Amino acid sequence: MLTTACSYIYKTYKKKMERVGEQVIRNKQVIFKDYISGLPKESDFLVKNENTTTLKLPEGSEAILVKNLYLSVDPYMRLLMQKFNTGGIFTPYQLSSALEGYGVSKILESTHPKYKKGELVWGPTKWEEYSILSNTQRLFKIEHTDIPLSLYTGILGMPGLTAYGAFFKVCSPKKGDCVFVSSAFGAVGQLVGQFAKHMGCYVVGSAGCDQKVNMLKSKFGFDEAFNYKEEPDLDAALKRYFPEGIDIYFENVGGKMLDIVLLNMKFEGRIAVCGMVSQYNNVDNFEGVKNLMHLVFKAIRMEGLQVYQYYHLYPKMLEFMLPLVRQKKINYVEEIVEGLEKAPTSLVGLFDGNNYGKQVIQVARDL
Ligand code: NAP
Questions:
Q1: Spacing, Cα 59 to ligand 1 middle (Å)
Q2: Tally of structural domains, the chain
Q3: Tell me, what's the pLDDT at 14?
Q4: Are residue 178 and residue 305 in the same domain, yes or no?
Q5: How far apart are the CA of 5 and the centre of ligand 1, in A?
Q6: What is the rounded distance in angstroms from the CA atom of residue 206 to the CA atom of residue 242?
Q7: How far apart are CA 204 and CA 220, in angstroms?
Q8: Residue 349 maps to which CATH number?
Q9: Ligand 1 pocket: which residues have CB below 6 Å?
Q10: Residue 120 belongs to what domain range?
Q11: pLDDT the model gives residue 285
Q12: Has residue 136 been placed in a domain?
């Protein structure tokens, strides 16, 4: 009975794959099941094997068909798993559809005048093996292929551009500034710390385990680092590392950390609000911040940002970053997991600090 059923399913599948005149291929996907509140779980996603896609673009379309090589696992994705008011900035995921996120892809076919078959791009794509992308406005062509392609999900991709734009534009760094970076071992934080050292600043980072803390000092050259989970008194910790106060706070976590940092800022300090990962599972009830009066007392400039604001800076960022990457003068830790099956675990792991550096999913081995 079981054998007959299996044989039927196989024959139907094969037939589907061999439709005359079309090349049809399996398209494994990570499907978003339902809106959530609280922490994401592996069961919020379904890795679906049965879907197929036609390796041909619709007539008259202006789109590209890509094979996804690497996918970027990013904290903001959690925000798209829930409907709430973001002032129109984020559009929640569609139910029963493949997740959307940043990635590195190879163009298999193009009906778009700007793109050619065989080119490599990074930017928004979907969590599946093959995608048809009709919104190509936020894609960047990859011209420098001597660099490992996975790095275009990180140091040379969206997190890199965020770190570059936010640090140099919002923080206005200068030599000797005292800089504090939270979630410092993350995709963005590890770069901000190194940019700050490059500028001659004193840099301290916080992270959620001792191994990350040690690496911040030994690999990325932070002057000091601490494990925020082991500090019962965050105020005392910040006073220990910044006896004269903080000039620049690069905010990645929000909540209690921001409140305590406000108490420790110097006059005319700058706070770049890049993200608040501690709040992403709590959007119905964001944690309050009590010490905002310190913005006034100390004439602090606190500024939120979106990476899109820096898209025009990408060529400038490459000019700055490529020599540093090629000469290994900048370090970057990425954790690459293989296969879409592992994607849900990888995304969920961001929220308990299980990731070790930039989280990347390798979807395909070959180009
Ligand atoms: P990431 O740091 O690589 O990954 C998330 C990290 O957040 C985890 O590894 C964990 O590190 C930490 N974390 C998780 N839950 C936490 C909590 N409750 N309290 C404190 N730390 C927590 O992420 P990323 O890509 O570098 O992003 C860093 C921040 O920048 C995020 O807030 C992200 O949303 C934001 N971002 C903003 C933009 C923009 O355009 N505005 C662009 C990119 C990223 P530990 O082990 O250290 O706890």
A1: 42
A2: 2
A3: 47
A4: yes
A5: 47
A6: 13
A7: 11
A8: 3.90.180.10
A9: 74-76, 159, 162, 183, 185-189, 207-209, 212, 252-253, 274-278, 305-307, 350-351, 353, 355, 358
A10: 64-130+149-154+332-367
A11: 93
A12: no
Q: Identify the H or E element spanning 4.
A: helix 2-17
Cβ contacts of 353 within 8 Å, gap of 6 or more: 207, 208, 209, 212
Ligand 1 centroid from CA 363, angstroms = 23
- Grouped pLDDT means (10 residues each) for the chain, 367 residues: 46 47 86 97 95 85 96 98 89 96 97 96 98 94 97 98 98 98 98 98 98 98 98 98 98 98 98 98 94 98 97 98 97 97 97 93 85
Shared-domain flag, residues 100 and 223 = no
Residue 41 lies in a domain: no
Strand order in the sheet with 178-181: 224-227, 202-207, 178-181, 246-251, 265-273, 301-304
What contacts 151, CB < 8 A, 6 or more positions away? Answer: 157, 325, 332, 334
* Structure token digits, residue 61: 């379309």
Judge whether 37 lies within some domain.
no
Give the pLDDT score at 6.
Answer: 45
Task: At 28, give phi and psi (nearest 5°).
Answer: -70, 140
